[in-house]
């Protein structure tokens, strides 16, 4: 006897044949795309006072051209003033780690003794959270005061990070730190133009008024058209 498969069973088996390949694809896709691994201090190269490395871009967000400019700038600073600045960019921190704690641990790993720390400055950026940490030695504090440190973190670096402009953030930070640590006048944070939101966007009150007007027009049209259509539906259209 030939059995005829019902439409419901046919749809079921068709759906089953479709779901299995899709689930297999998603599983394989999930294995290929994994979250960026958190960075610990032991994942970074071991540097120290006098090291020729000035920028560690673990997140790979800085162009080669800008990396070369920053390295040359910081190398020249160290040669002329004995003040050393190193910058580190990481992809993300461990969930229980803070940027300040990470910066302090890395600073003490690279410069374990007080004599090595005195003329050092370390700037760290986390590209996931856009948090910034800065640690400096005792000798540097006379030039790089607390107010400048706060401004570098919350303005010089933070402004470009709003739009994920990592190259600009590092270049601006390098320019400002080099100027200050060379005993030159502080150039200050970058100038940021504030947007005039009132002139750019329609206010909520104007939007509500506009929407109300539309609803009134629609209701009036319906109130006129519906009775006419109903009347002609029952009595017939003229000429018929």
TrEMBL record:
Signal peptide (from-to): none
Keyword Repeat set for record: no
Keywords: Membrane, Transmembrane, Transmembrane helix
Pfam (any one): TPM_phosphatase
Residues annotated as transmembrane: 214-234
Domain TPM span(s) in chain numbering: 56-179
NCBIfam families: photo_II_Psb32
Entry protein name: TPM domain-containing protein
Record lineage: Bacteria, Bacillati, Cyanobacteriota, Cyanophyceae, Oscillatoriophycideae
